[in-house]
Amino acid sequence: MNLLMRIIVTSIVAFGLSYLLQGIKFDSFWTAILVAIVLAILNAIVKPILILITLPITLVTLGLFLFVINALIILLAAKLVNGFSVDGFWWALLFSLLLSLLTSLLYKEKKEKTT
Q: Which residues pair with 24 in a beta bridge?
């Protein structure tokens, strides 16, 4: 149930951000749900591998390279999901930052209300 709630929150936030960021486009809300599922899978499988491979760069940049990895995950999701497009790296970076920030705020708010 918790995973389903996170996917729904992520898809709502992602779909809402597409109205604010002109470089991010979804064909429909169902596409946003599919993107949230694909992002969950990529974050669980691909992201740890990328972090491990780029560990020296991440350490030198004091963790800032993780933003680049997040943007790359967004760009990969855009390649995998038809109906979701990102106009470039900088749009992916901004989208990933805002998506992470807003979903964590909303999920934190939900957590505080249940405890």
A: 86
